[in-house]
Amino acid sequence: MSAGGSTRAILAALGANAGIAVAKFVGFLVTGSSSMLAESVHSVADTSNQGLLLLGQKTSQRKANKDHPFGYGRDRYFYSFVVALLLFTLGSVFALYEGIHKVAEPEKLSSPLVAVVILVVAVALESYSFYTAIKESRAIKGDVSWWGFIRQSRTPELPVVLLEDAGALLGLVLALLGVGLTVITGDPVFDGIGTLSIGILLGVIAIILIIEMKSLLIGEGATPDELAKIEDELATGKVERIIHLRTQYLGPEELLVAAKIALRPGLPMEDVARAIDDAEARVRKAVPSARLIYLEPDLYRTTVRTP
């Protein structure tokens, strides 16, 4: 997949979160709501995160060199991992701290209606961003579930934006509940509870992203569907069998394929070279992201142990 779809989702989220952050800060200054403050910091963190995702896309396009012969594709994984860390530290930890403080020392809200109006507007803007992320993700999701897409996707930005936007929408609902219950009951402790809930929500999302981005950063192989296609395309023609096969994503759009293949005995050197070229062409056609393919011809021996 090209980076175009993920870029559109990032830009939509960036614009929405920047506007929401300003509105929420104004709401906090007017009302003094800790839920509004937590949501303001959350939106600032999200805006910064989208900037980092765009930076990762930019730096990953640098050409390969002597020090980095496989290029810089994993920059997108690195910056996505940084985004997950920021969401945890700047979003979750701050909200938890502020929530504990407000529960221990509740403060009366002023002009809570202002907070409600701003939060409702924020829900509309965040919904647009979430819709854009869903639309762009559907193009590559296939038949897998949304959870499966987040777990299996080798394009890091879309899962990050999807989870961020989902968390933002749920966080806004929690903030509305906190402010609303405070107005209805007259007890500002509910505002602090709403803030705590936002912190827990962001923490759960951040941990999920940290686990997934770490896995991509240290190197994940082809998806089960891609692996099956590669095996089918390799083990045809003059290739008798695959002795062993290894794959690894060097970036979201660049898959490394390395395999030892058994060819028919007695093939002339020209036929061996042609068989390898044909196998590479078949694999690239079936899995376009398989850009780097290294095939080692060999004779199959039953005593050979695969590493």
TrEMBL record:
A GO MF label: monoatomic cation transmembrane transporter activity
UniProt-annotated location(s): Membrane
Membrane-spanning residues: 77-97, 109-131, 160-186, 192-211
Chief place where the protein resides: membrane
Record key words, sorted: Membrane, Transmembrane, Transmembrane helix, Transport
Topology in the lipid bilayer: Multi-pass membrane protein
The keyword Membrane is annotated on this UniProt entry: yes
Keyword Lipid biosynthesis found: no
GO biological process: zinc ion transport
A Pfam entry, by short name: Cation_efflux
GO CC entries: membrane
Domain Cation efflux protein transmembrane per the UniProt entry, residue ranges: 10-217
InterPro entries given in the database record: Cation_efflux, Cation_efflux_CTD_sf, Cation_efflux_TM, Cation_efflux_TMD_sf, SLC30A9
Name of the protein in question: Cation diffusion facilitator family transporter
